[in-house]
Amino acid sequence: MKHIKHITLAMAASMFVAGAATADDIELSTIGLSFSDGALAGLLSDAAATTDGITVTSEQLPFGQLFSAIEVRLQARNENPDLFFVDGPMTASYTMRGHLTALDDILPDASEIYTSAALQQGMVAGKLMSVPIESSTVVMLVNNSLFEAAGIEAPTNDPADRWTWEEVLAAGKTISELDESTWGFNFHYSDSPYMALVMPQSNGATLIGEDGVTATGYVDSPKFVEAMSTYAELYNTGIAPAGMYDYSLALELFLNGKVGMFAGVVSDAIAAEGRDGLDFTVAPMPYFEGGTPVTPTGSWHVGINPRTEHPEEAAKLVQALASPEFISAYFDKRANPPVLTEAWDSMSEKLDTPLWTLARYEIQNTAMARPSIGGWLEYDSILRNALREIQSGSDVAERLSAAAVEMNRELKKYAK
């Protein structure tokens, strides 16, 4: 095996300029994901400025710290924060533990204004519990130079010509044999269920029992094991670099022209566009022959703390966050798939590219969210550990069986 060598949505400018706070303004506290340029605080303040008498304080934390910080705040069961960022698959967990306010009366037209891919993880038992502010999808970035060097015709941008995982294995093996520093394939987040789960989903596997707590018979089912055996083959035979859990390094490897096929989010493709000398195209994510094309989706939502002392003002801010103006301003800072249906048309000047055309197709046709279960955090953590051990050579069936048993134990506290 190889070793790694170390409504366009025109901005109503007058609407989205923060006004001066007054002594009578209600201040809402928020906690969310930090942007590299600190832009989130300004976006939220601008949104608040479109309402009457609301200002916002924004605590911004990096991804690795955000979840634990939110847990600490919510477990205190007091009024702070008034609103908080919700990772899509965590909506059910927060709901079951009494940390979210239903938003149906605040946004009664949610099903009409949001894309279904963005909205699905905000829904729990038919109620809207969190509102999306950005979405996601995954495409396969293809290094055309490596395909040419390997004498292989590269996959195209057309979803009708989507490659199978079997084709990825064959081409990836040939590319990985070009030299010791070249890899055939990699997932950007190779140990993340967000990306890896599309493999069993495409193979027809069910990820968890209908009760949301039973993993045995699902995570270790034949279809799940079969799909993850292909995942193991990628990493155990030198097609993909095993053990690369530094995500910035994984992306840089592709940007440096050392990976033939790279499953990445939209921002990865945008980064590749800015890399001089990199000849690449975007292609649809692979699927299993005889199976169904599936792509990951879901991203950041916002929810209201049910213990807030300012429910009316919090509701007004949520409505502002659902406005086309906010979504357009947010997109300009974080170019992820827009969550409003109309944005795909009104922002067409920005989105009329092969990358965004493919992203739109996947979101409308193949996007499948992660399971909406109370124990998603536990499920994610247990499966992530299993994926790492599978990359290191653990027997797939045995490791997934052990993961299922561990999930059963951890998830039972969420049984209804």
From TrEMBL:
Pfam families xref list: SBP_bac_1 (PF01547)
Intracellular or extracellular location(s): Periplasm
Alphabetically ordered keywords of this record: Cell membrane, Lipoprotein, Membrane, Palmitate, Signal
CDD domains: PBP2_TMBP_like (cd13585)
Signal sequence residues: 1-23
GO cellular component: periplasmic space
Iron-sulfur found in the keyword field: no
Family label: Belongs to the bacterial solute-binding protein 1 family.
Name recorded for this polypeptide: ABC transporter substrate-binding protein
Organism per entry: Marinomonas ushuaiensis DSM 15871
Lineage summary: Bacteria, Pseudomonadati, Pseudomonadota, Gammaproteobacteria, Oceanospirillales
